[in-house]
Design brief:
With 162 residues, this protein is α+β, with helices and mostly antiparallel strands. Helices cover 20% and strands 23% of the residues.
C-alpha cells in the first residue's frame, strides 16, 4: 500500500472522528410550552397519577418526558417529580416534562404571587415610606405646606399648663 493511500485513509479517519466528537458536545435544548403549569407528579396505579395531591388519569396518547427529554413510563416516575404539565379538555394529563435543575430554578409564570410583606426588604420601615404616600396628618396638604396643628385644645375646666 502506498504512503499516499495510507495518509489519505488516515486523514479520512481523523475527519470522521472529529465529526463524531463534534456531535457529542451538542446539547439538545428543549423548549417547554408557555402555557405549561408547574406541579408535582407521582405514579399511583396503571394510568392514574397524582398531580399536586389530586389523582388524575393520563390521557390516551399522553406523554411524560424525563429530564433528558426521553419518554418515561408512568411507573418509572420518581416520587413527587417537579414537572411542567398540560391537561387535555377532559382534565386528563396530556403532556408532562420532568424539569432539570436549571429549568426548576426559572420562575413559574403561573405561580401564586408572593406576598409583598413575606420577603420584603422594606420590613421595619414606616408605611408611608414603603408606599410613598404622605402620613395621615398631611393628607390634603400640598407639598411645602406647613403641617396641620393636631394638638387637642383643652376642655372646659382643664388647665392649658401641663
Amino acid at each position: 500500500m502506498s504512503s499516499r493511500l495510507r495518509s489519505a485513509r488516515l486523514v479520512i479517519a481523523l475527519a470522521l472522528a472529529l465529526w463524531a466528537l463534534a456531535g457529542v458536545g451538542q446539547v439538545a435544548v428543549r423548549t417547554l410550552p408557555e402555557d405549561a403549569r408547574r406541579g408535582y407528579l407521582s405514579f399511583v396505579r396503571e394510568n392514574v397519577v397524582s398531580l399536586d395531591g389530586k389523582e388524575i388519569k393520563i390521557a390516551p396518547g399522553g406523554q411524560i418526558r424525563g429530564a433528558n427529554n426521553l419518554l418515561v413510563l408512568p411507573a418509572q416516575l420518581p416520587r413527587n417529580a417537579l414537572v411542567k404539565y398540560q391537561l387535555d379538555g377532559g382534565g386528563n394529563l396530556f403532556r408532562a416534562w420532568i424539569l432539570t435543575a436549571d429549568e426548576a430554578k426559572k420562575p413559574d409564570k403561573y405561580a401564586a404571587p408572593t406576598l409583598p410583606w413575606s420577603t420584603s426588604p422594606e420590613q421595619g420601615r414606616p408605611m408611608d415610606q414603603v408606599l410613598g404616600t404622605p402620613p395621615p396628618s398631611r393628607i390634603g396638604l400640598r407639598p411645602g405646606d406647613p403641617p396641620r396643628d393636631t394638638t387637642i385644645p383643652p376642655g372646659p375646666g382643664q388647665s392649658t399648663n401641663p
